[in-house]
Design a protein that fits this description.
159 residues; mainly alpha; 6 helices
C-alpha cells in the first residue's frame, strides 16, 4: 500500500520515465482505472489512500494498546488449555473477561476500518460498547447461575 501512496516520486509529471528505469512506466488499463479517482493533466498514478483517523497520534498509547492486544491473544492461547485441564470458576470468569475484551478490540478495529462518516461511527461504537457489556454480563450470569463456560464446552464435546 505504501508503494501506491507516492508513485509520483518515481514518475515524471507527464507519465515520464521511472526514477531507476530506462523505459516509460506502463500500467495495464484495469490497474490504471482502479487507481485513478479522477483524471488530471499529467496524472502519474498517485491516489489518495484513506487512512483511519488516529486518536493517539504522536503518543505511546497506540503502541501500548497494540502490545496489550498481543499479550491478551497469547494469554488466550495458554488459557484455553488451562480451562480444559483444570475447569474452575476462576478460569471461567477469566475466560469471560478475556474473550469479551478480545472480541471488543477486534470488532472495534472493524468499526474503525469500515464505518465512515460523522455520526455513524459514534453509533457503531456505542452499539459495540453495549454489545460487549451485555456479552460480559451474560457470560458472568452463565458462570454464576449455571455450569460455567469450561463445563459447558465439555458438555458440548460429550454430545
Amino acid at each position: 500500500m505504501a508503494a501506491l501512496l507516492r508513485l509520483s516520486v518515481l514518475c515524471g509529471a507527464r507519465g515520464g520515465r521511472a526514477l531507476f528505469l530506462r523505459a516509460p512506466v506502463i500500467r495495464p488499463a484495469s490497474v490504471s482505472a482502479f487507481l485513478q479517482d479522477s483524471p488530471t493533466p499529467g496524472w502519474c498514478g498517485t491516489q489518495q489512500i484513506h487512512l483511519s483517523p488516529s486518536r493517539y497520534a504522536g503518543s505511546t498509547a497506540a503502541s501500548l494498546h497494540w502490545t496489550g492486544e498481543r499479550v491478551l491473544a497469547v494469554g488466550l492461547l495458554g488459557l484455553l488449555p488451562a480451562a480444559y485441564l483444570n475447569p474452575c470458576s476462576a478460569i471461567d470468569y477469566t475466560l469471560a473477561a478475556a474473550l469479551t475484551l478480545h472480541s471488543y478490540w477486534g470488532l472495534g478495529q472493524v468499526v474503525t476500518d469500515y464505518v465512515h462518516g460523522d455520526t455513524l461511527p459514534k453509533i457503531a461504537r456505542t452499539a459495540l460498547v453495549l454489545f460487549s457489556s451485555l456479552t460480559f454480563a451474560g457470560l458472568c450470569y452463565f458462570n454464576y447461575h449455571d455450569v460455567g463456560i469450561c463445563k459447558a464446552v465439555a458438555m458440548l464435546w460429550k454430545l
